Each structure stands twice: as structure tokens, then as C-alpha cells.
Amino acid sequence: MVKRVASLVFNSFINDSRVLKEGLSLVKNGYEVEIIAHHDKDLAKEESQGGLVIKRLAYLDRTVTKSKIGKLKAYLSFLKESVNYCKSFDILHCHDINMLPIAVIIKKYYNKDVKIVYDAHEYETETYALSGIQKKITKLSEKHLIKYANRVITVSDSIANEYVKLYGIKKPALVLNAPPYKEVKKQDRFREEFGIEGKTIFLYQGGLGKNRGIELLLEVFKTIDNSESIMVFMGYGELENLIIEASKESDNIYFHKAVSPTVLLDYTVSADFGIATIEDSCLSYRYCLPNKLFEYIMAEVPVIVSNLPEMSRVVKKRKIGVILEEETLQGITKAIKQAVALDKKLINKNLKKVKKIYNWEEQEKVLLKVYRGLNV
Known about the structure:
With about 375 residues, the protein is an alpha/beta fold. It is built from 15 helices and 14 strands. The chain is globular and about 65 Å long.
């Protein structure tokens, strides 16, 4: 009998690549999967994508609902509708801590046979946004609820080890945020679109928010010798306007709007180096392995990364780029010079090997092993 999976997310499911990849992998391997998301303006209440059913419940316009009380009301509405809708599913796949209460309520009061997979996309109780009473409540909630999960999945070895120490659970399965394997033909989209000639392109792609070292990168490239190197920021987020203004003032800073995941690597491969900077402002950031690192690897682009445990371990072990000595103007400037001086042939050879390790096809094997072990 086909097993039904409810994949629960507290977003409107527009560009959640991890949830999409996991869902498509499960569908391909015989599971019936519905993504349970929240409804939002201009979105269909129900649609399908690649065999996945996307069901949107409990309308929430995030541009309007900004107060804590408003967000709580919206969450409780989503919780109520999700519990009612998902009672008959065989497996509840909870993406992030705020979806776990839904699954536990169903298991305790409506369907004792349901299996729960808790997918922690980051170190859930140690994020930058959490503080004070909210952090305490989140910690208590996770400590109480995680024992109902049949399996836990997370995104880095350090986070997995922390969960073992905190809760005494079986070590979570490691499913990295890697893209599907792809041989990407070398392109020059940035040079063609911006009219760049004879310069080395450094790329930062992804979320353009705070604590990502973006402000430092802007300062570096405002003062660096612009006859040799330029900086391209591609993505969206709260610092988007700051970057656009800097691009108007500096000849070697460029902004490119976010592009579809289907063409992302065509742009990534157009850069000479990919930058993945994260400030060590919380444990979740310290232990992160961001999507962009694996996207750079898949595009065979050498990297510059922050000196954080997980990212630096990959770069050092695989010899695919430069690790920042310090997150300062001087540190970034030095790393840029080191990157330009790298043995390109050796780095490219290493990247071709490493992309065969860090790809979604390999991560899918871990996900399926987790599901087959649920004994549904």
C-alpha cells in the first residue's frame, strides 16, 4: 500500500528548495506526498508540482501580519487546520521546530500509529532571531516534543552532535542542502549582462540579510583596486537596497536580482570565485553548511568561506578554496589576494571530485534510508 506523507512547512512554499527536493525524491520512490503550507495572496489553495500536491491552509499575508500577536494567531489557525487535515496520513514530516507540535498533537490524540520525521533545517533553538522568553519556550518545546519523533534529520554534523548531547537521542541523519548533480557548461552571463571585461568576478549569491558579512564585502570592494576585481551580489533580502545604492557609487559592485533555481548554476558558473561569509553571531550560524557553498561546488567555482567549523572543514579537507583568517576588512582583502593566487588547475580538479560527493543524489540515499527504517 502506498504510504501518505504530509510535509509540513510554515511558509507559502514558493522557493523552499530543500522541501521540494525531499518531496520529489519521495514521490519518485513510491510515496504519496502533500506539501502542507500556509495560504498567501495570489497563490492557489491547491496545486501540483512534479507529482507533489501542494495544499495551502490558513491564509497568512506576511506583509501585513508583522506583530507577535498577529503571527501567533496566524500560527494557531494554521495548527488547527493542519491537525484536522493531516490526521489520516501515515508519515508527518515536520520542517523546523514550529511544525513539530502539529505532528505530536495528531500522534497523541488522533492517530497513534503515525510516524514523525523531524527535519531541523538549522540549530533550531540557537538561531539569531531567538532571544529571551521566546528562546526559553522554544528550548522547552523541543526538549519535550523531540521524543515523539521516530527519526530526526538535520543539516550538519555539528548540529547532529549537539542534538545527541542535548536530548540523548539517536544521532540525527545528515541530509545536506546540496543541489542535484549537474555538469554545468562554462558561461559568462555576468560579463555579458554587465559589460564586464578583463576582471575577476567574485560572487555572493543567496539571502541578502544581516550577519552574512555583506556590509564588510561592500566596504572592501568600495576601496579595492577596481581595475582587477569586481563583486556581484545576486539574491534578495533586507540589504538589497544598500547593495543597489553601493553599486551606483562604485564601478566594481554589481547587483543582480535573484534567479530561478532552474537557471541558478548557469549564473554561478559565470563567476571566478564564490563567497560564503557568515558571522559567528549564534550557534546555528557557527555550525551551518549553507546551500550556496554546495552550489559553488556544483558549478566548479573556487570558494572563500568564513572560518566556521563546518564550512572550513569542507574547504580545508577538499582543498577547494580559501578560509578567512578573520572577518574584517583586512581579512577579506587578504583572502581575495590568496584566492587570485590559487593554483586554478588543481582547484578545478578537486572541485570535479568533490561535486560527486556533495550532491542531492547522495543526500537522497540518506533520506530514503530514514524512511525505510520507519516500519510504516
